[in-house]
Amino acid sequence: MIAYRQRIDGEPSALLRFVDVCARFSRGSASWQSPFRTNSRANLHKLAFPANADRREIESKMVAIEQLRGDPKAISAMLSDSIVRIARTKDEVAFEVLFRHFAPRLKSYFLRQGSDHSLAEEVAQEALVLVWRNAAQFDSSKSSASTWVFTIARNLAVDQFRRTRRPAFDPTDPAFIPDGERSPDDQLDRAEADQRVREVMNTLSVNEKSVLMLSFYEDCSHGDIAKKLNLPIGTVKSRIRLAFAKVRNALEAREGDAE
Amino acid sequence: MTIQFHLSDDLLLSYSSGNMDEASGLLVASHLALCPHCRMRNSSADSVGGYVLDTIPESDVSPYLLDAVLARVRNGVSDSTPLARPISHPTFVIPEPLRGYVGGDISDLKWVRVAPRVQQIMIKTPGCPSQARLLRFQSGMSVPEHGHRGRELTLVLTGSLCDREIRLRRGDIAESDERTEHQPHAGPGEDCICLAVTDAPLRFKSVLARLLQPLFGI
């Protein structure tokens, strides 16, 4: 369970907790503590979310992000919360937190799709504008912030670099077959599933992980990957299959447990 | 109705990573519209994409980029509507995105006869190396025995398609490659309509079928 996937009204959000940590930071607190593990609610309520955060506040947040590096769950919850804040209140501080996390990664992703620096930055700008504009469509129970931003980036990459279309299903189409009714307890939360994917990816061998990742972040066919790694194409295909099967099985086993 | 034949991991990963051609993507997306099970697997593939984005080495971005983005979004319009909840409507047979590509549902289609009791509609995907087409076989009709130079993907939409011991029904996927030689036929009852995507022309075994092949562009 990710503790902060659903906010209860009146309870401080993950981002607020995060701001609290930043504030404690700037007060020179000697021992840093993850905002996602603290229970000092009384203190949290005293902090109002800054309407117009100045540079110093943003900087201190980014320092705290660095401190959260070892806690991907906490980062993920904070990023999700930032998207929700943009949708609700057009919160520019929340947007800057997202920007600082995703802009350098989006640029790398687009560079690996075969673009030069200036085009990669241009497309990253486009992706970030879409993050803001489509924030209301983000559903934290269906995906993590990173997965959601990835799908935006991927669609842009297909459009900009492959100059082709990527047909997608439409959940509002009358012919669409909706997911079966399952109680919320039975359904493996997608954000939780994302976390599980992260854990499984970290257990894959270097070989398995590298082929699976190459197939995602570079404009690489299986043939290109085979050439790059100097492996027969059959080996590349079977490694990718095996690696993805491990990821999928881990998720399906969890779904089975829940039923 | 339960779908029995699903998308392979290879297809799901190519689709999710954005490395798939448009015609094959059309078939994958149309199957996903009908198959909650594969949508769940597709989400897993997207999650790998999210992981990749999170762990990719960071690049330096221009110090002006944030201001550029903020300047654009401050003046722009946000799409503040969350996605509507789907309402299942049994009278539509062809799901999106396919319906948009062929210009309507079953009753709106303009079929072209390719052989006795076989009709088709070519689907335009400009610049795409694969060819998508809707095929309609009258019940009991056999496709001439053929092999493949490349990959052939089939998604059954109505009726059934029998291939050796297997019977494919609505939503089922068949994937054939260079090694497959088969002679599928439409099952009894309703006409079989399927979406087929080929990345190379089929290789027919009979001389007559070979002679007719160039005429009908199969």
Helix amount of chain A: 55-70%
Question: How many angstroms separate the termini of chain A?
Answer: 16 Å
Question: Total strand count of chain A, please?
Answer: 0
Strand content of chain B: 15-25%
And the CATH topology of the domain at 204-259 in chain A?
Arc Repressor Mutant, subunit A
Q: Secondary-structure element order of chain A, as H and E?
A: HHHHHHHHHHH
The CATH superfamily name of the domain at 204-259 in chain A is: Winged helix-like DNA-binding domain superfamily/Winged helix DNA-binding domain
- Compressed to H and E, one letter per element, the order of chain B equals HHHHHEEEEEEEEEEEEH
Explain what this protein looks like in three dimensions.
The complex is a heterodimer of chains A (259) and B (218). By secondary structure, chain A is mostly helical. Chain A has a domain at 204-259: Arc Repressor Mutant, subunit A (Orthogonal Bundle). In chain A, 64% of the residues lie in helices and 0% in strands. In chain A, helix 5 (92-112) crosses helix 7 (145-162) and helix 10 (222-229) crosses helix 11. Chain B has 218 residues and is an alpha+beta fold. Chain B has a domain at 103-216: Sandwich (Jelly Rolls). Chain B has helices spanning 9-17, 22-34, 36-55, 65-75, 98-102, 207-216, and strands at 112-115, 118-123, 131-137, 146-148, 152-158, 161-163, 166-168, 173-176, 181-182, 185-186, 192-198, 202-204. In chain B, strands 1-2-3-11-5-8 form a six-stranded antiparallel β-sheet, covered by helices on one side. In chain B, strands 9-4-12 form a three-stranded antiparallel β-sheet. A three-stranded antiparallel β-sheet of chain B has the order 7-6-10, with no helix packed on it. Chain B is elongated. The mean pLDDT of chain B is 85.
Considering the chains and any ligands shown, give keywords for the structure.
heterodimer; A: 259 residues; mainly alpha; Arc Repressor Mutant, subunit A; 11 helices; 64% helix; B: 218 residues; alpha+beta; Jelly Rolls; six-stranded antiparallel β-sheet; three-stranded antiparallel β-sheet; 6 helices
